[in-house]
Amino acid sequence: MGHDGLIMKVYDGSSTERETPERLKVGIAEYEVTTEGAELTTSGLGSCIGIALYDTKTAISGLVHVMLPVAEEMRDGKPAKFADTGTELLVSEMVDAGADTDCIEAKIAGGSDMLDFSDSDKSIGDRNAEQVRETLGSYDIPIVAADVGGDYGRSLRFEPATGELVVKSANRETKRL
Amino acid sequence: MKVDVQSLGTFNQLAHEGAQAATDAMAQMTGIDTQVDITRITLVDRAELGEDLADRSFVGIQFDFEGGLTGETVLVFEQDQSAAIAGALLGDGASEEMAQSSIEEIGNIMMSGFIDGWAEFLETTIEHDPPTYIEGNGAAILPDPATDTTRDQVFVFRSDIEWEGEEVSFYIYMLPEYEPLAALMAEHGSDAENAIPVEKLAAFNEMTREGARQAASNVEMMSGIATEAEVSQISFAPIEDVPKQFSDEVYVGTVVEFTGTPSGFLLVLFDEQSAITVAEALMPVEIAGDGLTDQHKAAIEELGNIMTSGFVDGWANVLQQSVEHTPPRVVHDMGRSIIDPLAAQLGQFQRHAFLIDSKMMTDELDFECEITALPNEQELRKALEQLDLDRTTETQASVEDIFGT
Fold it and tell me: Which of B24, B136, B144, B176 has the highest count of CB atoms within 10 angstroms of its CB?
């Protein structure tokens, strides 16, 4: 998929069944949507946030890895880079793939305030989390689980088969949200 | 030649799109789905070109191209992955000869796409020779950059391409000749105000090398471990691609913010085992407990501090600017997560970033350390504007004076 996040791969279930689900990697400022239960992974979240969306009826799932809070502050045509436009983009791509916003639930992780050298009261991680909550709120998409903040990095794996978001960190127990 | 940030950005995008054209061609012809992970432009010493390939065995293809842009390019991947590639094309049980021809075929498909992508963007023609099959270890797999005795450093475009679902990575290296590249970059540049004379970027690389040497010698003084600084390069990529240049492996080290011209962040990172090795070499007492303890971390903090100071002082002396830095913060986390918030902090103000990195290692111990600077782009530009090349030359001649060894 393109770095600009505009090209999407949709897995439509036409391929042969596998024992282990396919795994799709999502890089920073990228997203993936799956309609056939592929595991979605992303790694090395510091202040970045991973937003996993899951349609409870159709199991259509998506994951986006956003870096900064608001697209308007930094116009550069990469919607998946920002918490607001990245969330919007993921919702809209999932709807295009057949999901219903009324059935979508969100799980989010990341937004650490590690290594924040800024003088401002709020770290980028906090602002990212706030923006994600706000944008999801505008769609009435509930956040059913969250693991945000703290001072450590995270890597994520979303498993559409169970709807679980697995959060791994260095030197910490793995969490299943 | 001057390079401005816009033309670097354009060329980075161009190389990225070329690599994407290569993956599209591959998907169309073979059904193999690959993804361009990252593309960056690097200015590196010709002697150090390809150090990142370590001493792994590679196979691939190589060809020359000429026209709007002239130079050489290779597509390589690790030798032990060639079976997977041949298998995908030919099914299991392909002979070695067939495997080689399938590699040539894939290489040809991808690289024709790559060159066509460039030519299309530049609205020019680029001719290329038929590909030649190559194999070799590490940097030796790469072509020698065009002989040019006046320049020690070369621009390299590198794209990493990953094959989804398979543990196969392709690397495209493109080594354009300097003059045609310079002409094209000038053509695609914007206002001269943002331009950086490339000689100054090269000089900055030299400064960084000296800083790394100083840091290495500090390690040696403290630990008695003979340490060498290797590889010093300045690379340029979209800000969101900066963290991708670090692995998910766990690192231990220090991070500081430096202020002045330029400002930014400086990281000294050891992989976990290297941190333990170095810390134990530094500390006179036996350490209780397994793995990385607080005592190890304290030693790494001290070491990181000393290395950082040497580095930053070196810059300050050459730039004749004061460069202050915060006390070091100790980090122990996944490499990519460590760089991520730093890139995000710069990403609020800039779309692309320069990444300056050096590696240090030693033959005595299994130890490796990376020193990385992530400067504010505008300020780096300002600092380079003010950089007196004569003074840099002097400095190179008397590094010991500057760094106080």
Answer: B176
Which domains, and CATH codes, for chain B?
A: 2-188 (3.40.1550.10), 195-403 (3.40.1550.10)
**Selected residue of A9, A12, A64, A67 to mutate for chain B interface (largest B Cβ count, 10 A):** A67
The chain A residue lying nearest B13, using CA atoms, is A3
Residue for token digits 């004569």?
A: B390
- Whether residue B186 contacts residue B1, with contact meaning beta carbons closer than 8 Å, is answered with yes
Distance from CA of B147 to the nearest CA of A (A): 35
The answer to whether the Cβ–Cβ distance between B341 and A24 falls below 8 Å is no
Choosing among B33, B35, B166, B240, which should be mutated to test the A contact, i.e. which has the most A CBs within 10 A?
Answer: B240
What is the rounded CA–CA span in Å between residue A133 and residue A152? 21
Residue labelled with tokens 């530049």: B122
Helix (H) or strand (E) holding B324: strand B324-325
pLDDT number for residue A125: 95
Measure CA of the first residue to CA of the last residue in chain A; give whole Å: 27
Say whether residue A3 is in contact with chain B using an 8 A CB cutoff: yes
For A30-39, what is the mean pLDDT? 93
Q: Is A75 on the interface with B (CB under 8 A)?
A: no
In three-state secondary structure terms, B19 is: helix
B173-197 pLDDT, tens digit per residue, is 888 887 777 777 777 666 556 667 6
Structural element, H or E, at residue B265 = strand B264-271
CB-closest option in B335, B342, B348 to A74: B348
Strand ranges across the sheet with A175-176: A23-25, A39-45, A154-159, A164-168, A175-176
Percent of chain B with pLDDT over 90: 9
In this predicted structure, the answer to whether residue B403 has a pLDDT above a threshold of 60 is no
Nearest CA in chain B to A154: B337
Mean pLDDT of B216-229: 74
Which ipTM was obtained for this model? Answer: 0.86
- Pairing between β-strand A23-25 and β-strand A39-45 as defined by DSSP bridges: parallel
Looking at residue B299, what is its pLDDT? 86
